[in-house]
From TrEMBL:
EAL domain segment(s): 23-277
Sections of the chain in a coiled coil: none
Protein origin, superkingdom: Bacteria
Localisation per UniProt entry: Cell membrane
Protein name in the entry: cyclic-guanylate-specific phosphodiesterase
Signal peptide positions on this chain: none
Length: 279
């Protein structure tokens, strides 16, 4: 037992060492990624259920590592967050996404909105307001067509501070939505105090539709709460026609997911817009 215990321990420390090493490497590479132009945004359509028209897109970050290839955001964003690099990367995302929105508006898709993800560190950073204001001014876009997604788990700190920050950002005229809704533990009384426009139902609840009756009940409840508070609702992770028709019966306004389109390049999205958005 002692033997195996010790080898177990050694194995554990070796793992830890490798993981720590990889983390250090990842962080080092992230430091140079911005100036080496290794980031790119892809865009996933947000679609109105009733009309099947694209109302907006969500900007999603991609990192093309020169040696390791494509690294998914779930892997590098936590590292960017813990190292503080997310502030500079996030500012790049905001500026890039606003520039892209201007391009699509100029093509005639003037109703299109752009959803941008914010991380916790970014949200609580002092310069965020100025970063957003500058990007909107620099690209000359309508602020109301820019939407920021914050996750429910970010909203669990000091409520007064969060409410203040949200109101401050809202003075710019932008929209705010709450992402991954249902996975955190935000109290409904807090939700009422947040100046939100939209709730995004987390894809973990959409996955089980239409067969899982618990997921069905949760989705229905979230939609009812959202509507009673005056928020619009979007379901994420919609992959099948069956999921979509169930969401339609529950009066979900919009959806996002592979069923309609995966996140795509500017070129591919422009083609989709031509088909699904009247000029
Ligand atoms: P998220 O904000 O919840 O984004 C939705 C994720 O679900 C995206 O993964 C998207 O590609 C994926 N997805 C969309 N439709 C479907 C579907 O039908 N089925 C399935 N299985 N997945 C679907 P992605 O692009 O890998 O991003 C993962 C997460 O990384 C995002 O989750 C977000 O939390 C974070 N992220 C991405 N870009 C940014 C960014 O610019 N800034 C920050 N702070 N976080 C970002
Ligand atoms: Ca999101
Ligand atoms: Ca989400
Ligand atoms: Ca998510």
């Amino acid at each position: 037992a002692k033997e195996s215990g010790r080898s177990g321990y050694q194995f554990y420390t070796e793992q830890m060492h490798i993981d720590a090493q990889q983390l250090v490497e990842l962080e080092q590479d992230l430091r140079s990624a911005l100036k080496n132009n290794e980031f790119k945004l892809v865009y996933q359509p947000q679609v109105e259920l009733e009309t099947m028209q694209i109302t907006g897109v969500e900007a999603l970050l991609r990192w093309h590592h020169p040696q390791k290839g494509l690294i998914p955001p779930d892997k590098f964003i936590p590292v960017a967050e813990s190292s503080g690099l997310i502030v500079a990367i996030g500012a790049w995302v905001i500026n890039q996404a606003c520039g892209q929105l201007r391009y699509w508006h100029d093509l005639g898709f003037e109703q299109l909105s752009m959803a941008i993800n914010l991380s916790a560190r970014q949200f609580f950073q002092k310069d965020l307001f100025a970063t957003i204001a500058q990007a909107i001014a620099a690209h000359g876009i309508e602020a109301g067509k820019v939407e920021f997604e914050i996750t429910e788990s970010m909203m669990m700190r000091n409520i007064e501070e969060i409410v203040d920050r949200l109101h401050h950002i809202k003075t710019l005229g932008v929209q705010l939505s709450i992402d991954d809704f249902g996975t955190g533990y935000s109290s409904l009384s807090y939700l009422k105090r947040f100046p939100l426009n939209k709730i995004k139902i987390d894809r973990s609840f959409v996955r089980g539709l239409p067969d899982d009756s618990d997921d069905g009940a949760i989705v229905e409840a979230i939609i009812a709460i959202a509507h009673s508070l005056g928020f619009t609702v979007i379901a994420e992770g919609v992959e099948t026609a069956e999921q979509l028709s169930l969401l339609a019966t529950k009066r979900c306004g919009e959806f996002q997911g592979y069923y309609f389109s995966k996140p795509c390049s500017v070129q591919a999205l422009s083609a989709l817009l031509l088909e699904h958005l009247p000029k």
